[in-house]
Design goal:
With 573 residues, the chain is α+β, with helices and mostly antiparallel strands. Helices cover 29% and strands 32% of the residues. The strands form 15 sheets. A 4-stranded antiparallel β-sheet has the order 24-32-31-25. Strands 33, 34, 36 and 37 form a 4-stranded antiparallel β-sheet that branches. A 3-stranded mixed β-sheet has the order 3-2-8, covered by helices on one side.
Length: 573
């Protein structure tokens, strides 16, 4: 029996074949999945720039390079026949490369449709644009400000006593919101300098119409300028003509109407100088010495007007006919600080003390000493009140009427305001001393000055060194002061009197000079050096003895102790 040939079974081959085919298909599908994932579809363009088949990083680079020139190119604009240029970067416009590429990139997916979309090819896309709305709005506004032709609003002007009507005119302005959208659309799509983008405009109309202007002229402007206005104040009249007050008038738009408006300060500038002739300041009662007798000068109420009483009714009065254009200004009485009765009760009847000092000629002394005396003169103190020379005289400045003068300090000239005021201080101190007024503060000069009474003198320095005394009597005090100016041939004199009612009789007793100190000798140089022949310093006591007026019995005493430093001898080289 012969052998039969060996044959493989078809049933065993077919499964293996299918398994191989399936493996090949799976490998191909996996390769397609891997290759097409995270890439831009083939054939994709963005605004004409090809980025198909690229991974995101490469696509961003290609897109940035391809759009760079167009993204930076200026946009030429036109409106109202005027041209302007806007730069995209300054207007807040730029290409958002990340968002653009993200929108066209296919993520990895096993979905065969996604793989087919990549293989079949992409389409054209517009780039994503990032807009800074605030910057775009500002850029459009700047262009609009250049090219706008605003309408002329209706108005009424008052000029030289006459009303002038200005009727409205239409204008053309850029529609800024629509213009911003137009600039946004033109970004990346304009064709260069020859491609002019026309901005949308709108008609600019004034809300105040010609009819409103005519109504304002008829109802207010013409009547307002038809005649004068009279202000009546404290029995007097002040008349203003239209040319006097027209500059204070205007008409302002309120919705579609023009309403009258008054510039109050301008009106008061015209009225106040004329009303102030009738206005007066309050006057305090005082005491004046006439023919060596004390006379009371009565107090007087002041008269003032309130500015609102002038301005508030003014616009209403302008609408009235001629004979009724009157403003009644209310008068306010302003009482004085010190009444006649207050001064009468002070009991200022007679001179209770006086003192005089003399001073050598100097131009600055003839300015500063009379100025300080004028400020002191007429000062009234009520019982218990304190006099302060620094408070009464004030800071020694040019604005306060003082000048600079030379004073000697440590053998050297120094120039300062108010030199010589201590002459008034010393004279006033002695008048108060002999009136029996209480010494609150005084300071003697460091060196004895021979024209002043030894141990009874005072210096003042603003604001630290003052002369102060208190009225401790039951009566008020009036301080009188005046100056006889010096000449090169004659010394000047400062006179101070205290007027009141006699309460104290004052006597003095001076001790001998003691505790002498000898001066040094100093050798100085320079243009400010002043030679000086020195003299000794010393101490001295001055007793003030108080007797009740008309009595010979001592009531009490006060001692003033003064130490003078030696004045050094100075030689100059």
């Amino acid at each position: 029996m012969g052998e039969r040939p060996y044959r493989t079974s078809d049933r065993r081959v077919i499964p293996w074949l299918l398994l191989v085919l399936l493996a090949l298909f799976g490998a191909a599908y996996a390769a397609a999945w891997y290759y097409t994932g995270d890439r831009v579809a083939r054939g994709t363009t963005v605004d004409g720039v090809r980025i198909g088949g690229l991974r995101p990083a490469a696509a961003r680079r290609a897109l940035g390079n391809g759009l760079a020139d167009r993204a930076a190119a200026s946009i030429v604009l036109s409106a109202n026949g005027e041209s302007a240029v806007i730069r995209p970067a300054a207007a807040g416009l730029r290409v958002d490369l990340d968002r653009t590429v993200e929108g066209v990139t296919h993520p990895r997916s096993w979905d065969p449709r996604r793989i087919w979309q990549y293989a079949a090819g992409g389409a054209g896309h517009d780039p994503a644009v990032q807009v800074d709305r605030s910057a775009l709005r500002d850029a459009v506004a700047a262009i609009a400000d250049q090219v706008d032709e605003p309408g002329v609003p209706g108005s009424v002007e008052f000029r030289g006593g006459q009303p002038v009507a200005h009727y409205p005119q239409r204008g053309t302005v850029v529609d800024r919101r629509a213009a911003a959208r137009t600039v946004r659309r033109a970004f990346l799509h304009h064709a260069g300098a020859d491609d002019v983008v026309v901005l949308p405009t709108r008609i600019d109309r004034s809300p105040v119409t010609a009819a409103s202007v005519s109504r304002a002229m008829d109802e207010f402007a013409n009547p307002a300028m038809s005649g004068s206005v009279v202000f009546r104040f404290a029995g007097r009249s002040v008349r203003l003509e239209p040319q006097d007050f027209s500059a204070a008038l205007s008409m302002r738009p309120v919705g579609p109407r023009l309403q009258p408006h008054l510039n109050q300060s301008l009106l008061l500038r015209q009225v106040r100088p004329r009303l102030e002739r009738a206005e007066r300041a309050p006057r305090d009662a005082t005491v004046r010495v006439v023919a060596d007798r004390a006379r009371i000068v009565p107090a007087r109420d002041g008269l003032r007007f309130r500015p609102r009483d002038v301005t508030d009714p003014f616009l209403h009065v302008l609408r009235r006919p001629g004979g009724e254009r009157v403003v009644h200004v209310h008068v306010t009485k302003v009482p004085p600080h010190r009444s006649t009765g207050d001064v009468r009760r002070l009991g200022i009847r007679e001179r209770v003390s006086s003192f005089t000092t003399r001073f050598p000629y100097s131009a600055y002394r003839n300015v500063n000493i009379p100025r300080a005396a004028r400020l002191v003169n007429g000062t009234i103190l009520a019982p218990g009140r304190t006099f302060s020379l620094n408070r009464v005289v004030g800071e020694r400045t040019a604005a306060n009427g003082f000048t600079k003068g030379y004073v000697i300090s440590d053998g050297v000239y120094a120039k300062e305001y108010g030199g010589g005021v201590s002459q008034v201080a010393t004279t006033t101190y002695n008048a108060a001393f002999f009136a029996g007024l209480a010494d609150v503060e005084h300071k003697a000069h460091s060196f004895y000055i021979s024209r002043y009474p030894v141990g009874r003198e005072a210096t003042v320095v603003w604001p630290d060194v003052d002369l102060r005394f208190r009225d401790t009597t039951p009566y008020g005090v009036l301080v009188r002061a005046w100056v006889d100016k010096a000449t090169p041939q004659r010394h000047g004199a400062v006179h101070v009197e205290i007027w009141s009612t006699m309460y104290w009789d004052i006597r003095t007793h001076d001790s001998r000079r003691y505790d002498s100190t000898t001066p040094d000798v100093r050798h100085l140089s320079g243009p400010g050096c002043v030679p000086n022949r020195g003299y000794d310093g010393f101490s001295i006591d001055v007793d003030r003895l108080f007797f009740r007026h008309g009595s010979h019995r001592l009531d009490h005493r006060e001692r003033v102790h003064t130490v003078y430093q030696p004045s050094d001898t100075v030689t100059c080289s």
